C-alpha cells in the first residue's frame, strides 16, 4: 500500500505542478495557499491540515509572502504564531488554476467512472483515518 501511495503522491504532485506553473506557483505553493483559502491559519495549523512539516510550510509561506501571495496577520489566539492569509494576488493565482484543475478532475472521473472515483476517495479517507488512529496509539 505504501509504495503505491508514494507513487500516487508523485503522480499527483506532477499533475499539480503542471496545473500550478501557468499561475506562477508550484504544487507546494498551491497546497499551502489552498489550506488558507477559507480561513487564515497559523503555519502549524497548515502543517497539520496538509500532513507536512511545520518547517516546510514556514519556508513556503515565507516565499509566498515575499511574492505577495499571502500575508501574515495577527493571531488573537497566539501572539507569536501569526495567521497566514491569502492576498488578492494569491486568490487570483488560485482562480487561474481552477479551470484546468476542474477539467483534469472531470477527465479523471471520466476515466475511473464517477462511482469508482467516489469509492477511491472514500477508501483513501478511511486509510488516512486508520493511519491517524494507529499514530495516536503509539
Automatic annotation (TrEMBL):
Organism expressing this protein natively: Glycomyces terrestris
Biological process GO annotation list? response to stress
Q: Which InterPro entries match?
A: HTH_MarR-typ, MarR/SlyA-like, WH-like_DNA-bd_sf, WH_DNA-bd_sf
Please report the name of this protein according to its UniProt entry: MarR family transcriptional regulator
* Residue ranges of every copy of the HTH marR-type domain listed in the record: 1-129
Q: Name one GO molecular function term.
A: DNA-binding transcription factor activity
- Quote any Pfam family the record assigns: MarR_2
Q: Which SUPFAM superfamilies match?
A: Winged helix' DNA-binding domain
Amino acid at each position: 500500500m505504501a509504495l503505491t501511495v508514494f507513487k500516487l503522491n508523485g503522480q499527483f504532485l506532477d499533475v499539480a505542478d503542471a496545473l500550478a506553473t501557468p499561475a506562477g506557483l508550484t504544487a507546494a505553493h498551491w497546497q499551502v495557499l489552498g489550506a488558507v483559502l477559507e480561513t487564515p491559519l497559523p503555519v502549524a495549523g497548515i502543517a497539520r491540515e496538509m500532513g507536512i512539516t511545520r518547517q516546510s510550510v514556514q519556508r513556503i509561506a515565507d516565499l509566498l509572502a515575499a511574492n505577495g501571495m499571502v500575508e501574515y496577520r495577527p493571531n488573537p489566539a497566539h501572539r507569536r504564531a501569526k495567521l497566514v492569509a491569502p492576498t488578492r494576488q494569491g486568490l487570483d493565482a488560485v482562480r487561474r488554476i481552477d479551470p484546468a484543475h476542474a477539467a483534469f478532475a472531470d477527465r479523471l472521473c471520466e476515466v475511473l467512472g464517477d462511482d469508482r472515483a467516489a469509492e477511491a476517495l472514500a477508501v483513501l479517507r478511511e486509510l488516512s483515518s486508520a493511519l491517524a488512529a494507529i499514530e495516536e496509539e503509539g
